[in-house]
Amino acid sequence: MLEVSDLRVVYANGTEALKSISVKAGRGEIIAVIGRSGAGKSTLLRCVNGLQKPTNGRVVLDGDEITAMSKRQLRDARRHIGFVWQEFNLVERLPAMTNVLTGRLGYDKSIRSAFFLFSKEDKEIALRSLDRVNLMHRARFRSDRLSGGEKQRVSIARAISQAPKIILADEPVASLDPELSVQVMSDLARVAREDGVLTVINIHQVELAKEFADRLIGIAQGVVVYDGTPAGLTDDVLDRIYRFDKDAVTMHEKHLNIEPSAKPAPVPRTIIT
Predict the structure, then answer these.
(1) Entry pTM
(2) Per-domain residue ranges for the chain?
């Protein structure tokens, strides 16, 4: 379903966000991407949905090369890419149901979509999506009246209303308290499994990643340093991800025939709590 090959991103200011990322993922997998802030997790997701153009490498989703698409082709492709944002990305003055219906805009290119005039079928999809995250009773509530957890579940409902091939979630519980974080991750994982949708989640909370994901990918300094099951996430692996394994990156740099760069100081282990 998803193939990321030798992905590298260097920003205009010279910052190398991704050195070389290669990942393959199948339909129905739930993958958690973990790593320090600045490791390249969000950049990876932005490359997958075409918001960030890579310096090198390819992203192929269900046989279509995202990295080779024109702007118009990307707009069409994003109909099938659900995105759950850290800050919800809702229109606060609109009801929850209308926010979910915006996930259907890509399927209607007529002038009526510009005036938020949706078909009966789209409305049924939106209500069903809200029901699946236990928010049917909030369908007509303005989004600014919802709690943080409810807003994020509306965001999930919007994503699944797109009938996506893939769901990307960028720190979906970063702004929520622990109890709400569990509820939101549970809803996201449940609907993803029910629909068999490949889901990639950037997340800082390691224990939540281990609880809800089938597979973990650890990124450090733009390089994949772990790709395996939650059971394989040992203390040594966590050290490589969060304290930065100098030897692993030095080997990677030798492979690219470049000089080893200066490495950051070790990060306290408290970052993984």
Answers:
(1) 0.84
(2) 2-272
Sequence-distant (6+) residues with CB within 8 A of 191 are 132, 133, 156, 160, 197
Q: What is the pLDDT of residue 113?
A: 57
Q: Which residues of the chain have pLDDT under 50?
A: 245-273
- Nearest alpha-carbon partner for 203 in 233, 162, 245: 233
CA gap 202, 41 in Å, rounded: 6
Question: Which pLDDT does position 175 carry in this prediction?
Answer: 86
Question: Which strands, in side-by-side order, build the sheet including 198-202?
Answer: 64-65, 56-61, 2-10, 16-25, 223-228, 215-220, 30-34, 198-202, 166-170, 81-84
Which CATH number, 3.90.76.10, 3.40.50.300, 3.30.450.20, 2.60.40.1890, labels domain 2-272?
A: 3.40.50.300
**What does R_g of the chain's alpha carbons equal in angstroms?**
19
Using CA atoms, how far apart are residues 42 and 48, in angstroms rounded to an integer? 10
Strands 166-170 and 198-202: parallel
Q: What is the pLDDT of residues 47-56, one digit of tens each?
A: 999 999 999 9
- Using CA atoms, how far apart are residues 43 and 59, in angstroms rounded to an integer? 13
CA–CA dist 119, 213 (Å, integer): 35
> Which pLDDT does position 114 carry in this prediction?
56
Rounded distance between C-alpha atoms, residue 127 and residue 97, angstroms: 7
Non-local CB neighbours of 208 within 8 Å, separated by 6+ positions: 32, 173, 181, 182, 185
**Does residue 113 sit in helix, strand or coil?**
helix
- Cβ pair 79, 61 in contact under 8 A: no
pLDDT score for 112: 57
Q: Are 61 and 1 in contact (CB under 8 A)?
A: yes
| Nearby residues of 65 by Cβ (< 8 Å), 6 or more positions away | 58, 59
